Queue: 4 jobs
Job 1
Amino acid sequence: MSHDSKKTNPHTLQRWHRRLEELTGVHMPTAAEEAAAPHAAYQAYEDGVRLLRTLTRSEEKYPLVASTNRDFGFCRNTWAMKWIGLPTSLAVAGVVALRLHGEMIADGAVSEAAVGVLVVSVLLAAFWAWVNTKWVQQAAERYAFALLETLDLPADD
């Protein structure tokens, strides 16, 4: 985590950097070093976190990391498929609605399937509004913090 991040306080950041250095051997840059060479600092953070992910792969030992990682993956993949799934679902709902409309004109009654199409349409609208980049970003941040908070756990060895 960068020194210019507003996501945590400087004391926590310093503790996390110190612990990450102990665990991985990767030097975590000071604020001055980061300001002087931001790209090199980013590479150090990236390398340290990559090694931390490797060290925290055990679902039994780090269940919060595993569950927030799954949650993030679900959110990311849902967002990625939104652009295919929604138009396809809307097209199918539209075709079914047109067919039901023809049946309603002939029968003069609203069928259960017509109510189903209405419910699905409302759910699709909710899906459209709910699944967005902010939703994915929040899941990513929950995972990142769960991962970084493992640095506050006592050493095993």
Note: Residues 63-140 form one domain.
Job 2
Amino acid sequence: MDKVHRQLLRDPGIPPTEEVLKEALGPSMKAFELFLQKLQEEEIQVTWRYYEDGKSWLAKGLYVWMGPRGGHHETTLLWVSIWSGFFKATLYFPEKSRKQLISLPVVDAVKTRIQEAQKMGKLRSFPMVFEVRDPVDLEDLTTLIGFKKTLK
């Protein structure tokens, strides 16, 4: 029988330290470390917080930049949750960017997911969720993160 995947990091008293993440992710920890390195290279700040509504720890990827007149700007690029043996990275894209997303150099399966993604209720955006188990899973994800960075 297949192992049931479940979201971890549910205890507000146990923050996601490196040791906790290693235990939760197992062999996927290597992909997670590479993912964090890529985010750092893209100047994306990662902060962990326990969210009462979802009863779990989530990481928020925040991009901060200075505007042309020196103003401070920031946007949330992605959310990360930890599951048994892998992590999920979720990005939300405005509906108006769908055609541009499909034209990006990503595999056909991701293009199909972009085409078929449903908007969330009354919001004008749709989610793209990536389950990452291996460093090769990061290629298309980092392409979409780079694109989202340009959507300021």
Note: The radius of gyration is 16 Å.
Job 3
Amino acid sequence: MSVSVPLFDANAMVGPLAARGGRWQPERLLATMRMFGVTEALVAHTYAWRHDPAVGNEQLVKELADHDELYPCWVVAPSSCGELPPPDQLLAQADAVGVVAFRMYPHDHGYDPLGHDADALMDRLEDHGAPVLIDADQAGWRSIEELAGRHPSLALLITHTGYRTLRALAGALERHEFLHVDLSYLGSHTGLEWLVARFGASRFVFGTGFPHRDPADAVARLMWSELDDGDVDAIAGGNLRRLLGRSGQRHG
């Protein structure tokens, strides 16, 4: 597939993934990205999700060290069990190694993002300014909306939305101005066009969910859409770069 607009993927991973052909090394990820016109990507590690956040985050930094097109996205969780340091220390470590975004898996990692254990982490993430990715099915829309209400300047990027959640998604976007959505599971016919017409292109970010998802889904959804060129450019990479540019603006 030939793509004329460079794409910046907000939602990619490296690491072992049995369901999609074994281990995904950065080189393998990059080779697939180039096939689809994806020039840059935020990348997390499957170890940090499925095994241990601290181990996976450390491994991610090592594996991406020689790949400037791939930006590390750490998986974070409350420090109550001790596998991760307290939020101030965690974010200082992240800044020191060039981490530009964060992911949370509340359901799989067994915590409530609205609970007391997560309060300090969420406060510091809001102050930090970097985007925070959460799969919709990891928290649920009620929790996502309450989290956005408690932390109104937190740049939440919701992934894994699915075409059956358009009503909940539209309501959440209407109520929370810093809520953003990636394209990885927005599979409804002309659903992206409807959402952009209602909320503007600035709320949407290109993301593939690769290697869990075939990147062709998100690429086709954007590049074959009926959106104008300015909206396509914004979603392809401009919006994500704007969100990444917020990081650190509120330090201190």
Note: The chain is about 45% helix and 20% strand.
Job 4
Amino acid sequence: MFKKIKNFLKRLSGIERNEIEKSLLLQGKLLEIEHNKLKELKDLGAIEFSVFSQWGEDGILAWLVAQLDKIPHSFIEFGVANYQESNTRYLLQSQNWQGLVLDGSAENIAQIIEKEYFWRHQLIAKAAFIDCNNINKLISDNGFNNSVGILSIDVDGNDYWIWEAIDVINPVILVCEYNAVFGDLHALTIPYKPDFDRARIHHSCLYFGASIQALINLGKEKNYTFVGSNSTGCNAFFVKDEFADKILSKLDQIVSYPSLIREGRDEDGKIIFTPGSERAKLIGHLPLINLTSGSTVKLNDLDQIYSEEWS
């Protein structure tokens, strides 16, 4: 009897969750319509909303897609966990996009495959720990090559190096997480380590990824134009150069935002709410690659890492 009740409650909670998600999707579509009426935006922060994304990326991506004609309705996203919070799920469910999601946890992928949206849409979910040596094969082996609508990179570590290594696809829109703790004045990234795990490398979990300037420079090398970040200061958005005018003509300014997220942890894994520039002191002794000079540096050795706007 207890098992029957438990299963009934599980089904009931699933029904409630589905109804909530339907309501959120509808609200997202209504916001899309309103955003697309705007003739001009202050910056990308003006059209943020979250249905499944963590920091407003759903609204930004939906608006970018709406500005571009005949963009492929396909995506690839790395580091999706169980896909509950993600940058591409809104487009999957609201516009019937198709795509590939990758995560290092087999348990997370199993949870994705069990969801109703998995059979309702053309979604491929694979468990793989991504590095520079396997990323192109993972993409091509799963049927993706050349043109893709969106690529979203968020692996909390080798993000810069993995984007640099990708050469089998040319996404129209690219989203990549940046580490605002590294500041906005220098092109900095962690040294490449294939099995990088930010929780193991340093207890603070603040030592990962690359600075916004590192990603902007890499984008230029790969023929991508930086069009701004979300207002939380964690994800940078790029479009292929040939599409840039369609976006830039509607933006008052291109802004990369600093981050106020206080996720630093102590040696016991407890959040310690370290604010602002104090976060850099927690990891100031750790090595970084200055991509402009090619030298190894430390935040402690740099006179200034934040611009006046970011300070």
Note: The chain has a mean pLDDT of 94.
